[in-house]
# Entry
Amino acid sequence: MATTDSTEPGWYVLFDGHTADQWRAYRGDSLPAGWQVVDGALTRVAAGGDIVTREEFQDFELALEWKVEPGGNSGIMYRVAEAPELETTWQSGPEYQVLDDAGHPDGRRPETSAGACYGLYSAPRGVVRPAGEWNEARIVVQGSHVEHWLNGRRVVSYELEGPDWEARVRGSKYRCPGGRVAPGAPPGRPDSRSPSAPNPFRAYRLAQSDSWVIRP
# Structure
């Protein structure tokens, strides 16, 4: 079980700055050696692949901080499944993009820039902080409703079902053989993508609720 943060009731600590016990490799039992705790942050220091939480969650709010090196590219996926027919995390999990917008080619497109739902829903410009600085992220999932927050601003809001969602997925890399729309089936696991450069995450915590009111 994730531990409860006693200072804020209802929150579960997924990473406490000291141990990464709540995480393991995608389709694995333990944390890859390439992911380590460095200076209080969960950091990919060598090849390690994607990691996922040990527990599954359905409705939740995930809060964390992240930063990238110049040119860095990573992501946070959610509702990630490990069904036999799925080979990678992105086949089931929508992605909150983690990126150095100024130094990576994906930063030139709103739908692949920092805070976006990668390749599907765009994020506004000018919200992400420069490479090397910490950013605050929140991901809110309640039923089919999803919000991405970046540095205190809601940058993405969408529904994880319906004609608009399905049309976007079918026109993207997420389209599966036979036209099946893959991402987002509940429940699932938050996931941290193996980044292209050392990419620290810190202060990972998650809250679950059956009766949230989504803020406008």
Observations:
- The first strand starts at residue 3 and ends at 4.
